[in-house]
Design goal:
This protein has 149 residues and is mainly alpha-helical. The chain has four helices and two strands, in the order αβαβαα. It has a domain at 39-141. The chain is 37% helix and 8% strand. The protein has a two-stranded parallel ribbon. Helix 3 crosses helix 4. It has helices at 21-31, 55-66, 88-104, 110-124, and strands at residues 41-46, 73-78.
Length: 149
Amino acid sequence: MRHRLALLCLPLALPRYRADPEALRRFGADANLSGRIGVPVLSVHGVHDPVAFVELDDFFHRTMAQAGQADHLVQTFTDDTEHSYLSDPVYSTLVNALLRWTQTGTKPSAEGIAVECAAHEARFGPGCRFLPSYRPSELESRVTPRQRP
């Protein structure tokens, strides 16, 4: 005798709750970035990061810009699939660029960092995979925006 399995799909009635305004405010005070960072910020993100998707960097850039601090931010991206560690020449290059920026006021560019990294491979081995023209998509292309106070 042949048995058949039938699945009955019914719409689930899930309860909906309205956010408590005070809880939302307190969460936002703790979790919402202000973008008011008055020192140079140099970031790197692997575009294929399996833990933190790269579109988060677009949101960070917009947050800094809305706070009038975009000139304090240089974002770099690499063709990497790692989250925790990219490569020795990448970090060596970024530390040198950040030190120069803080000591001389000369803001680095993603293009200049990519070029400089190649020179660091002679000392630290291969690993430079910078993508100087890469720009991440908007965060909202990846996730539904959350309500912010």
